[in-house]
Amino acid sequence: MKFTISSSTLLSLLSTTGKVVSNKNTLPILDYFLFDLKNGVLKVTASDLETTLVATVGVENVERDGVIAAPVKLMLDSLKEFSEQPLTIEADENTWEITISWKSGSLSIPGSSGLSYPALPALADDRCAVELDVDMMIGGINKTIFATADDDLHPVMNGIYVNLAQGVVTFVATDAHKLVKHTSEAEIATDASFILPKKPANLLRGILLKEDDAVKVEFDKKNVVFHLKNSTLVCRLVEGVYPNYNAVIPAANPNRVIVDRVEILNAIKRVAVCSNQATNLVEFKIGNNVINLATKDIDFSYSAHESVSCAYEGSPIVIGFKSTFLVDILSNIETPSVVVELADSTRAGVFKPLYDEPQSANTLMLLMPMMINA
């Protein structure tokens, strides 16, 4: 194998694919990239068995095709030290030595045979295939991923639930305390669903920022494949039945608050400094177009309170929320104002962005309240 490539191009390619590699791999070969050069195209594969990313790039001055495994850490550490310049990569498939040469020098690092690298999983014959808009996918992942759980006992909650229905794609994430439901209009005619794990979801949203065209998505009961312009992401799905999220969304909330999002967010951050460190409880007393926020920590004699004006329709209400969850929710809403719908102190609050015009996508965020000690 011998070819020439720009140092910045190769570093960008390996930095993206290298995000798949785990710090604790079960197989030694997974600490390597798989380089496969054929017909002037370099295909680089990285995997942790659960998730595999394959990226391609055109290269120049190809003298020999070939396949070799290159160590992830050494390749990345080496390439980070180069300014923009052409590099010649040569691999000896007898000794598995990889040589990187440039205008004023060269370095050699040990490679390995690529024969033992895991093959990509094959999808079942009854797979589903759809094309999804890039911006819609980015929006769905961005709006929901912060609400996923880290729960070994309930693995289905550790990913984003993607539900495809006639003309609608719904992204859902929950950790049992907060829930986000993001719905987008889409030109699809498929009724199907899958649970996308958090790690590939994070990888995918980074790659999608460089995409322009619609993304072809294929999946069966075990795996999903995202076909992108210059790469392919394959990951094992979370198996199981996702909770009935619609059942926990209140159907009727008679109390409605409209408030400046940044103002209430900053007020929560200020009073949260004096909240109990174990609970992070913030008390809301809402009435007469005013939200009174209060926190206290009896153990250390801390307390804080602040008032924020709002537009309020409903009966006076007192309710408590965890400040860290509130900050997460309000930080992931982009509109200047937010609508908060409440029923009583024991039922979930519903947070929605307030738009001036109808949108093709809608986001609903739900937060369970906390008990307020007298």
Walk me through the structure:
With 374 residues, this protein is α+β, with helices and mostly antiparallel strands. The chain has three domains: 109 residues, DNA Polymerase III, subunit A, domain 2 (DNA Polymerase III, Chain A, domain 2), CATH 3.10.150; 117 residues, DNA Polymerase III, subunit A, domain 2 (DNA Polymerase III, Chain A, domain 2), CATH 3.10.150.10; 119 residues, Roll (DNA Polymerase III, Chain A, domain 2). It is built from six helices and 26 strands. A nine-stranded antiparallel β-sheet has the order 14-11-12-13-26-25-24-18-22. It has an eight-stranded antiparallel β-sheet with strand order 6-2-3-4-17-16-15-10. A five-stranded antiparallel β-sheet has the order 5-1-7-8-9. β3 and β4 form a beta hairpin. The termini are far apart. 34% of the residues are buried. The model has no long low-confidence stretch (mean pLDDT 93).
When the domains are counted, the total is: 3
- As laid out across the biggest beta sheet, the strand order is 14-11-12-13-26-25-24-18-22
Count of helical stretches: 6
| Arithmetic mean pLDDT | 93
Distance between the termini: 73 Å
Structural class call reads alpha+beta
What share of residues are in beta strands? 35-45%
As a whole number of angstroms, the C-alpha radius of gyration is 25 Å
